[in-house]
């Protein structure tokens, strides 16, 4: 009797972008999207830890999130509460990347003149 080996399914870690600028790879090391954004120094207002639900409400430009706790605040279809969700796909949020620790951009190639190479 021949048995088949189990099929492994790998899901790509979602990329979280801010206004289209890739900012973080959500690899599940943080329990929530809010904590992952805070670690990257993204400016996001939240009072979740003080009991004010809905303060971190953020507009989702594209992508999907999955809630691990049902949100207490009323949300529109294009909004999420980062404190109680994780990305379920690549995600583009209506947040500024200004001041955030974003991945380094590739530096332009260095161009040398023939004279510099000879010296």
Describe the protein's architecture and organization.
By secondary structure, this protein is an alpha+beta fold. It has a domain at 15-93: Beta-grasp domain (Ubiquitin-like (UB roll), Roll), CATH 3.10.20.30. Helix content is 10%, strand content 21%. The protein has two helices and seven strands, in the order ββαβββββα. The chain has helices at residues 33-39, 114-118; strands at 15-18, 21-25, 58-62, 65-67, 79-80, 85-87, 91-93. Strands 2-1-7-3-5 form a five-stranded mixed beta sheet, with no helix packed on it. A hairpin with a 2-residue loop joins strand 1 and strand 2 (21-25). The longest helix has 7 residues, at 33-39. The radius of gyration is 20 Å and the shape is globular. The N and C termini lie far apart (73 Å). 24% of the residues are buried.
Q: Key features?
A:
alpha+beta, Ubiquitin-like (UB roll), two-stranded antiparallel sheet, globular
């Amino acid at each position: 009797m021949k048995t088949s080996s189990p099929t492994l399914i790998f899901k790509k870690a979602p990329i979280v972008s801010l206004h289209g600028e890739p900012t973080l790879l959500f690899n599940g090391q943080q329990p929530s999207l809010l904590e992952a954004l805070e670690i990257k120094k993204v400016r996001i207002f939240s009072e979740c830890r003080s009991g004010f639900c809905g303060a971190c409400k953020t507009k989702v430009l594209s992508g999907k999130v999955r809630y691990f706790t049902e949100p207490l605040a009323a949300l529109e279809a294009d909004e999420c509460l980062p404190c109680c969700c994780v990305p379920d796909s690549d995600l583009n949020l209506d947040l500024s990347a200004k001041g955030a620790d974003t991945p380094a951009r590739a530096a332009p190639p260095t161009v040398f003149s023939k004279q510099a190479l000879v010296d």
